[in-house]
């Protein structure tokens, strides 16, 4: 067995959804230092770009190519990883969408789509990998939002899913405590990502990424949760922009 193979065989593992951009990408980059990272996303090309960036970093990466709303794709992506690795140490839910709309303008299809991506798919993937998380006494980390606490005009869709996601993680935490699985909910304020640029465009505001939280700071919050010793469980982390303009 080569040194790299030995390192991979003994390394902790982490599945990160939405890992091809924004917060998910930053989380994958951070965890790759000492985890085998399963890089999750819909695009095989996007996943490969992230894996190429991480080549030579830590114990290695694997591809997890699936649309999280497609249960068959998710199962097909998970099956070979489940065969290779008996346990899963970390599951980070970072995939999500954030359409904005007034309630008066939002048809059923918009509600169904966002709840499918942001809530139902989270629940289904968690259920799928729970046996491996229990085996490893692992961590589930959900990237929520400040919108998981407060809803404003045009944010009923997004906030609705984030309130629901908070309810999901609260319940899961209590259910899985006896199994040794820890559950953390991370609530960022505005983060300098593509999603934030789209939100500013919707609101008709000028976007200055340097005014908002860097994705690496949210990755640091995830790291805090997963590196906590077993006598502690980091349940909720809120990260807000400091308001200290850098321009």
Fold and architecture overview:
The protein has 247 residues and is of the alpha/beta class. It has one domain: 3-Layer(aba) Sandwich (Rossmann fold). Helices cover 47% and strands 15% of the residues. The chain has helices spanning 3-10, 22-31, 44-53, 71-84, 108-136, 156-176, 194-203, 215-227, and strands spanning 12-16, 35-41, 61-65, 90-93, 139-143, 182-188, 236-239. It has a seven-stranded parallel beta sheet, with helices on both faces. Strand 4, helix 5 and strand 5 (139-143) form a beta-alpha-beta unit. It is globular and about 50 Å long. The mean pLDDT is 92. Pfam families: adh_short. This is SDR family oxidoreductase. InterPro entries: KR_dom (IPR057326), NAD(P)-bd_dom_sf (IPR036291), Sc_DH/Rdtase_CS (IPR020904), SDR_fam (IPR002347).
